[in-house]
Amino acid sequence: MSNKKSCEHSLSSGKQSDQQGDQKWMAHALVLAERSRSEGEVPVGAVIVKDNQLIAEGWNRPIDTQDATAHAEIMAIRAAGKVLNNYRLPDTTLYVTLEPCTMCAGAIIHARIARLVFGAPDPRTGTAGSAIDLFSQSYHNHNVAVTGGLMQHECGQKLKDFFREKRKK
Question: Residue 39: CA atoms inside 13 Å, Cβ hemisphere, count?
Answer without folding.
Answer: 18
